[in-house]
Specification:
Keywords: Signal. InterPro entries: DctP_fam, TAT_signal, TRAP_DctP_sf. It holds the Pfam family DctP. There is one protein chain. With about 350 residues, the protein is of the alpha/beta class. It has two domains: about 190 residues, Bacterial extracellular solute-binding protein, family 7 (D-Maltodextrin-Binding Protein, domain 2, 3-Layer(aba) Sandwich), CATH 3.40.190; about 130 residues, D-Maltodextrin-Binding Protein, domain 2. The protein contains 13 helices and twelve strands. The strands form three sheets. Strands 1, 2, 3, 4, 5 and 11 form a six-stranded mixed beta sheet that branches. The protein has a three-stranded mixed beta sheet with strand order 6-10-12, covered by helices on one side. The two termini are about 25 Å apart. About 50% of the residues are buried.
């Protein structure tokens, strides 16, 4: 996943004047206008889906429930949205828990499940069939926020200049990974982890400063041009970030039951739409880059299992730092057992 520095270097919008949210009382048709900041640029598929969701919500509510969808960096940086929500500058955020890892270790294990699952579809069942949603609410409760629902984010591929067929090939690999759990897991595998700003990644791959980079899914990797120099796209199931929409409790409590239900339903519809769109974009990108000489490498189950073992060791270490982090890790382990992983 792009780091917060990558996001802020992507040419985002000029800061918007701050205005207090206009949230009224609880009757079913009370007016509610929410200011929610996202974590990607205005032109990104995810932010466009966010805008479309807000438009549907406004139409469905007859204009009684509206969202001002602010791109990343409009008001504050991605790691500061919790503070802006607490100060009443924002009513909520569409973000990833990974951005808040410095606040609580629980955000680390909630924000990216690494190689814990075979695919995102299985992991996302944890929210509805397991404790994922409830634990998200418990996590955000400590920051006077209400976790509304998770939003789809795809499994990521590694653009590389050399073939990476398994964990052994990570030894001494020069790979750019933003600081966090995934970078530490690669370090455990023997990789030489490098932290570079997103704007330097292309040149670093081209010059050989790095051999590979953690970035995003094939469609997004192709869009930013990484496969022009990285002729291998490696699906190691190494990173499965989580994204979600959360509101201040003040904003959530100010919504009518009808508006709460509408918001939850529209976020879930947005997530389903993103799953379909991103999957189509990734399939198209894979076909395109194959035609341009890029080799797609799918790690076999036994290699993913090795990376999963490293992920579990790192999760156990993080779980020892905080009771809620331990609770989240235990919940994932129970769900993995339930689905046969």
């Amino acid at each position: 996943m792009p780091s917060r520095r990558d996001i802020l270097k992507a040419g985002l919008v000029v800061p918007i004047a701050l205005a207090a949210p206009a949230i009224l009382a609880r009757p079913a048709r009370a007016q509610a206008a929410l200011r929610i900041q996202g974590f990607l640029a205005a032109a990104s598929p995810t932010h466009r889906a966010f805008e479309a969701m807000a438009a549907r919500l406004a139409e469905r509510s007859g204009g009684a429930l509206t969202i001002q969808t602010l791109p990343a960096g409009s008001v504050v940086g991605p790691a500061e949205t919790i503070d802006a929500v607490g100060a009443g500058i924002l009513d909520g955020h569409y973000s990833s828990s990974s951005f808040f890892a410095a606040r609580n270790p629980a955000f680390i294990v909630y924000g990216d499940t690494g190689a814990s699952y075979d695919d995102v579809a299985t992991r996302d069942r944890w929210y509805s069939e397991g404790d994922g949603e409830a634990l998200g609410r418990e996590l955000y409760d400590g920051y006077d926020m209400h976790y509304v629902a998770n939003v789809f984010w795809p499994s990521e591929h590694i653009p590389a200049t050399k073939a990476l067929n398994g964990v052994a090939d990570l030894q001494n690999l020069k790979i750019r990974v933003p600081p966090g759990m995934i970078s530490e897991i690669f370090g455990m595998a023997g990789a030489a982890v490098v932290n570079l700003p997103g704007g330097e990644v292309f040149n670093a791959l081209q010059s050989g400063v790095i051999d590979a980079t953690d970035w995003a899914s094939p469609g997004q990797n192709e869009e930013v041009g990484l496969y022009r120099v990285a002729k291998f796209s490696v699906n190691a199931a190494h990173s499965m970030p989580a994204t979600e929409i959360a509101l201040s409790k003040r904003a959530w409590d100010g919504l009518s039951d009808e508006h709460r239900a509408m918001l939850e339903e529209e976020i879930r519809a947005m997530s389903a739409g993103l799953r379909e769109q991103v999957s189509a974009d990734d399939a198209a990108a894979i076909e395109k880059i194959r035609g341009e000489g890029v080799t797609i490498i799918e790690w076999p189950a036994e290699e993913v299992a090795k990376l999963r073992g490293l992920t579990s060791r790192k999760q156990d270490e993080i779980a020892g730092r905080d009771p809620l982090a331990a609770k989240i890790v235990a919940s994932h382990r129970a769900f993995q057992e339930k689905v046969g992983i």
